[in-house]
């Protein structure tokens, strides 16, 4: 069946600003793909990420280069040969999943999971800042079951302790975004144990994480920037206890599902995460995250406005998408 492909850029203002160890931003700039065939349209959203050499222009160019093959009927399994892993392929792959579900008249989850998807506890992100400011954010969200705390400075001890004191009953995960060093690693991990942190994401820079093989890990350590594809996983097992699967890194739902299955085979714990995007970016990830150990799909909660229709968030829960949004 012949398809028509359209791609566009959309901007969603962030409520305040979003700060990690690499900098701050005040809006989410996303690329949306729409695939139309047989009177139905499937959608997919991606977030170009400069850390991986992506920009809005480069992602749009990748999609445009693949347009002839996509419109001619390229299948999921063939996308990996036509497009590199990354944001552009994610938008196309998710749009294809959505379109196929609509053409078949059955929900996408039937091809992802054995059971109907359920609401999930998602993390809420506390941006990096001074300890007092981070404590104030944590106190405001202390009713949430899970907080994800951005760290990644030379001395995060006061930040970790301040957040724990402000949110004494929340489960806490830390995301250092490659910001720690071999010299600060042991001390920071000890503070994590002291403050009952459940998991630390990517403490050391990707490619410079050898120290994780030799340090005693009394808290789970999760690979993020160090892992993109299922082929990466076997080599990480001696350094990491978990992996963070993101659709934009994997290049779509197809490869992300392969990562999920391979991680389970290797005994790695699974976190499903996101970039800062709208509900359309989160919707397929909610299906992927069924059964995950940690879920971090709070992108829309960080925005000043979301798209309509949107995912339903209630308390600490994110609910599966309706077909009007995706799948």
By DSSP, the count of extended strands is 14
* Through-space gap between termini: 19 Å
User: What helical percentage do the residues reach?
Assistant: 25-40%
Radius of gyration: 19 Å
Portion in beta strands: 15-25%
CATH class of the largest domain: Alpha Beta
> What fold name goes in the CATH topology slot of the largest domain?
TIM Barrel
- List SSEs in N-to-C order: EEEHHHEEHEHEHEEEHHEHEEE
Task: Walk me through what this model shows.
There is one protein chain. With 327 residues, the protein is an alpha/beta fold. It has 2 domains: 4-107, Enolase-like, N-terminal domain (Enolase-like, domain 1, 2-Layer Sandwich), CATH 3.30.390.10; 120-318, Alpha-Beta Barrel (TIM Barrel). It is 31% helix and 23% strand. It is built from 9 helices and 14 strands. The strands form 3 sheets. The chain has an 8-stranded parallel β-sheet. The protein has a 3-stranded antiparallel β-sheet with strand order 1-2-3. A hairpin with a 2-residue loop joins β2 and β3 (40-46). α4 (131-140) packs parallel to α5. The two termini are 19 Å apart. The mean pLDDT is 96.
Topology record:
Layout: E1 4-20, E2 23-37, E3 40-46, H1 56-71, H2 76-82, H3 87-104, E4 120-121, E5 124-126, H4 131-140, E6 146-150, H5 157-166, E7 171-175, H6 182-194, E8 199-201, E9 220-223, E10 242-245, H7 247-250, H8 253-266, E11 269-272, H9 279-288, E12 294-295, E13 313-314, E14 317-318
Helix pairs in contact: 1-3, 4-5
């Amino acid at each position: 069946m012949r398809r028509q492909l359209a791609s566009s850029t959309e901007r969603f203002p962030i409520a305040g600003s979003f700060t990690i160890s690499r900098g701050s931003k005040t809006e989410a700039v996303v690329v949306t793909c729409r695939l139309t065939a047989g009177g139905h349209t499937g959608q997919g959203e991606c977030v170009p990420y400069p850390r991986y050499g992506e920009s809005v222009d480069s992602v749009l160019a990748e999609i445009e280069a693949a347009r002839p093959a996509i419109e001619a009927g390229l299948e999921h399994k063939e996308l990996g040969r036509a497009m590199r892993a990354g944001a552009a392929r994610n938008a196309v792959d998710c749009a294809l999943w959505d379109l196929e579900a609509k053409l078949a008249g059955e929900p996408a989850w039937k091809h992802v999971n054995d059971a109907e998807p359920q609401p999930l506890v998602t993390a809420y992100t506390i941006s990096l800042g001074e300890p007092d400011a981070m404590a104030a954010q944590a106190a405001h969200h202390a009713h949430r079951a899970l907080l994800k705390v951005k760290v990644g400075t030379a001395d995060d001890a006061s930040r970790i302790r301040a957040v724990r004191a402000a949110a004494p009953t929340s489960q806490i995960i830390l995301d250092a975004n490659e910001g720690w060093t071999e010299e600060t690693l042991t001390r920071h991990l000890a503070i994590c144990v002291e403050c009952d942190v459940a998991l630390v994401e990517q403490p050391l820079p990707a490619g410079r994480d050898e120290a994780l093989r030799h340090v005693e890990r009394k808290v789970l350590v999760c690979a993020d920037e160090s892992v993109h594809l299922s082929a990466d996983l076997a080599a990480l097992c001696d350094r990491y206890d978990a992996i963070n699967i993101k659709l934009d890194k994997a290049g779509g739902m197809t490869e992300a599902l392969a990562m999920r299955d391979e991680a389970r085979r290797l005994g790695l714990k699974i976190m499903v995460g996101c970039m800062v995007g709208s509900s359309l970016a989160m919707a397929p990830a909610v299906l992927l995250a069924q059964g995950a150990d940690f879920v971090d799909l709070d992108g829309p909660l960080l925005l000043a406005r979301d798209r309509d229709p949107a995912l339903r968030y209630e308390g600490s829960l994110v609910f599966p998408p309706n077909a009007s949004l995706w799948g």
